[in-house]
Structures are given as C-alpha cells and as structure tokens.
Design brief:
Structural class: alpha+beta
Strand order of the largest sheet: 1-5-4-3-2
Number of domains: 1
Largest sheet: 5 strands, antiparallel
Strand content: 25-35%
Organism: Saccharopolyspora shandongensis
Distance between the termini: 28 Å
Radius of gyration: 13 Å
Number of helices: 1
Pfam family, one: DUF397
Number of strands: 5
Protein name: DUF397 domain-containing protein
C-alpha cells in the first residue's frame, strides 16, 4: 500500500457508491491497471491511498461479507 499527497493530481475517474447519501461524507474510489485509489470526498485535493488490485478486491469482498461490521 502506498499513498499520494494530492489525489487531484491522479489521472483517474473518481466514483462513489450509489448507496452513499447525498452529503459529502463519502469514500471515493478510482482505478487504473496498476492500482486502486481511495480518497475522502470531503477533501478531493487531499491524500489518497493506493492499493494493488488484488488487495483492493479482497478488501471489498471482506466489506461485503461484513467482516468489518461493528456489533
């Protein structure tokens, strides 16, 4: 995992979940062949995490399976 200080410098098409509320408190993702990028929609010019595709896919599967849900 890596990061960039300015997510807005990445040549990526950002998107957020269709399940997100209309507010700006969302996580946005973008992808290239080399990495998936994750940023805070409240700060689009701020930092972004860069994750290799396999790790990103595993993280999404874990989220969907509820492994990070709090009781």
């Amino acid at each position: 995992m890596s990061h960039v200080d300015r997510a807005s410098d990445l040549a990526i098409r950002w998107r957020k979940s269709s399940r997100s509320a209309q507010g700006s408190e969302c996580v946005e993702v973008g992808a290239t062949a080399e990495f998936a990028a994750i940023r805070d929609s409240k700060n689009p010019a701020g930092p972004a995490l860069l994750i290799v595709p396999g790790v990103y896919a595993a993280m999404v599967q874990a989220i969907k399976a509820g492994r990070f849900d709090q009781a």
